[in-house]
Amino acid sequence: MNTDDVDALVESARRGDRTAFTKLFRAHRSMITALVFRMLGPTGDLEDVVQEVFIQIHKSLPDFRGQAKFTTWAHRVAVNVVLMHRRRARSRPVLVDEEAGGHEPDAGLLPDQDLSRQRRIRAFYRLLDKLSDKKRAVFVLHELEGMAPADIATEVDCPVLTVRTRLFYARRELAQMMRDEPALAGLLAELELAAEGQEQAADTGEPARTALGRDGRSDP
Amino acid sequence: MTERESHDNIELRPSSEFAARAVRHVVAEVLATPPPELDWARLERRFLEHVETERVAQLRQPPASLGALFGFVAAAAAVVLFVLGARGPAATPAAATSGRIVNGATLPVVDDALGAHAHLAASLAPGSALESGDTAKRFVLPGIAAFTLAPGSRVVVRRTGEPYVLELAFGKVAAEVVPRHDADAIVEAFVVESGGTRVAVHGTVFSVARSPERVEVEVTEGVVAVGPAGYRGDTTGNLLAAPMRATFAARDARLVEVHAPPHVGTPMTTTPSQDPASTAAAPSALGIAQLAETAPEREVHTEATSKQAPKATDRGTRSDADAQPGQGVAGADAAGTPADRGEPHPAGPIAMSVADATGAMVSCLRRATANAAEASLSVSVSSQITVTLDGDEKVATIQFVPPLRPEIQGQCAGQLFGRTVAGAGSSFVIPFSNR
Question: Is-above-0.80 flag for pTM?
Answer without folding.
Answer: no
